[in-house]
Amino acid sequence: MSLERWRAELRHRLQTFDAAESWERFRASPTGQKAIRLGIIGLSLLGLGLASFVGLYIYFGRGLPTIESLSNYNPPQVSRIVDRKGRLIAESYSERRTVVPMERVPRVFVLSVLAAEDADFYRHGGLDYTGVARALYKDLMGMRREGGSTITQQLVKTMLLTPERTYTRKIRELILARRIESELSKDEILHLYINHINFGHGHYGVEEASRLYFDKHVEDLTLAEASMIAGIAQSPTRLSPISHPEAARKRQLYVLSQLAAKRAQYWDDLPLEDIEKARAEPVTLHVHDGSVHSAPEVATLSKAALKDIVGDEALKLGGYTLTSSIDLDMQEVARKALQKGLRALDDRQDLQAPLRAPKKKVKLPPVATLAAGRQYDAVVTGVKLDTSELLLDVGGHKARASIAELARWNPKQLPAAQFAEPGAQVRVTVVAADTAEEAALVRPMLGAQGAVVMIDPRTREVLALIGGDEAIYGFNRATQAVRQPGSTWKPVEFALAMENRVFTPASLVLDAPEVYDEWKPNNYETWRYTGAVRLREALAQSINLVAVRVVAEVTPRAVVDFAKRLGIQSELDPSLALALGASGVKPIELVNAYATFAAGGRYQAPRYVRQIQSPAGTAVALPAEAAPEQVMTPAGAYLITSLMMSVVEEGTGKAAKVLARPIAGKTGTSNRVRDTWFVGFTPELVCGVWVGFDDLRPLGRKESGGHTALPIWIDIMKAALAGRPAVEFPMPTGIVTARIDPKSGKLAYDNQPDAIDEVFLEGTEPTEVATPPDVLDTGSFMMEQLGSDSARAIP
């Protein structure tokens, strides 16, 4: 049949076609009846399938987690304590994660994640249907299921569902994945994924992974590094480049090969040469686990402050950054200087290994029961074979101690058998008391400890805070130890005496023995007394008996009240013994009191926190600070500063002259040399050093504030002031200068050859002129008879 005839036939059939008649013929035919029955069955099955699907969706969709938590993503994060320059001091977290916005994540990492996990991520609707069918089949057959989940599905498994591997959980996963895709953008889903997943060793999210493996922020990752981290997500334990470097390298090469293979289809903007370069580039790990031990004292104080400010619940979620006042450079300098000074003390007092037994054996008293945390005298009895442990007798109790913790006293790294000979006596702290089966665990306390505080007097920011020779968490002597300040207390009482105009720097005070209600104070060398001495000289030479007479005049109660205004919160005994520093204070309190002198009499509490940033990057409001309080006049503060400059120029602190700049300060040594101090300052820095045994043992012969603490202070301040110009203490208004006779404290007579300049509060300068030597002065004659040779005071 020709084409034209076929077309004509088709037109005729269409014109004459009767649909109703044809349908009736088809329905009446056996074939039609069979087709109709099959159609009805098919439609029924389709309806039943749809109904079943809806029923299953409703059934498995009941009680599913909402995705509201994903929209308001606020997971646990790391809170960080950093120094004033942003350098890490410590971290606090319940889950180690730092959330970063997508704009900080480099494209090379995003593409590496897509290549490794889900190249079609930006094209599919959240489900990999082939992978789902395969997973369901293997679940039903009890077979080991393989991967194939999309990033969205992985997010559901990680954040919304339990890790159980059942077909029920899989169906719930699919439902949630579709819900997420309908409510969140692809970028939002990817942001959640890369910030939440585990990248190994307890580090969650790409920022923490970057810090852990390469010690850098995520935005600084190279393609080689990004592909390495992206590959870890599949199995953080098995693919860790730290514990399984070969497996991690193979996985990285796979990720790079996927980047190259799918480049033309998905990301043709990534140059092929960059991928090949990353493939050839060796990846060097710079592992950083976040363990920081440079300033544990500051970390403890900062965490407590953060908890007080934001509260327990917010702190548990974390994500805060607290910028402390500490300068880690100064912290390190202070720690090293203290360690150096303590080692020198150990050497002078023969406390370094090998420890020798005394020539005369001393039997130590028995101890009924050892208590953890308490200190006792002990005797070395031997060593535990093939170990680095000493064996000791502590009051009749067997004990053991590891010498591994005693490196400070074992510079030659002697083994236990040579570290201490049997019979050597040591002081120990009980770590764990003995039992019927185990000897007590003790730690020898061989040497003294120390504390350092450095403060900026203008802001009261604490720049360095050292609570012991080792950078460990524990007892912070700078803020917790209450120790006798000795003669470093004298500036407090002398400042009050001059501020109240009872005394001036030129006032003559008698240095001679006297008994006060059966208490007879003495000078450091009790057999030498000066007689009448000017107040400036008395402070420079640290004469005890002058200090007692000054406090007796102004009253101990007035000194206590004045000390409280200077920020001394420790309990003070309002007796004459206070004059010699017999009441204990904390180093931070005393150093800040000196900072008030350096700040012109203006008191502020010490500050440890500069600012706090919230997880959202906004500033957290800090508690309102009390306004600075002018607790003494600027002129009075200058006067006591001037007197303390004489301590350095000609007194017990003159070793500090090596710094070649104006310095004010005071040495101090408590009764029986249990405490040694030096607290000193320049116009820009105040620093205090304390050294002593925790159990109040004497430090030993010839130790003193000037000999033990001052060298440490000098080492610290040399580093702190390096490169800074010398600055004079500014003289405020209200100060007058007068030329006086150094012996009488009166105005110098005309052309007096040994006259000196002295400063006074305006209105307190002397008005009487000294008597020339060719004129008899009966008053001076009588004073001279009461005194004797020059004396040295407790330094």
Number of DSSP strand runs: 22
- The first-to-last residue Cα distance is 132 Å
User: Level of helix content?
Assistant: 25-40%
Strand content: 5-15%
Ranges where pLDDT stays below 50 over 5 or more residues in a row are 786-795
Mean of pLDDT: 88
| Outline | elongated
- Here the CATH topology of the largest domain equals Beta-lactamase
Q: Cα-atom Rg, whole angstroms?
A: 41 Å
**Order of the strands making up the biggest sheet:** 6-7-8-10-9
Structural class given helices, strands, pairing? alpha+beta
Write the CATH architecture name of the largest domain.
3-Layer(aba) Sandwich
Q: Profile the largest sheet.
A: 5 strands, mixed, barrel
Question: How many helical elements?
Answer: 27
Number of domains: 5
Which key phrases capture this entry?
795 residues, alpha+beta, OB fold (Dihydrolipoamide Acetyltransferase, E2P), 5-stranded mixed beta barrel, 5-stranded antiparallel beta sheet, 22 strands, 39% helix, disordered C terminus
Characterise the protein shown here.
39% of the residues lie in helices and 14% in strands. It is of the alpha+beta class. The strands form seven sheets. It has a five-stranded mixed barrel. Strands 12-11-20-19-18 form a five-stranded antiparallel sheet, with helices on both faces. A four-stranded mixed sheet has the order 2-1-5-16, with helices on one face. A hairpin with a 5-residue loop joins strand 6 and strand 7. The protein starts with a helix and ends in a 9-residue tail after the last helix.
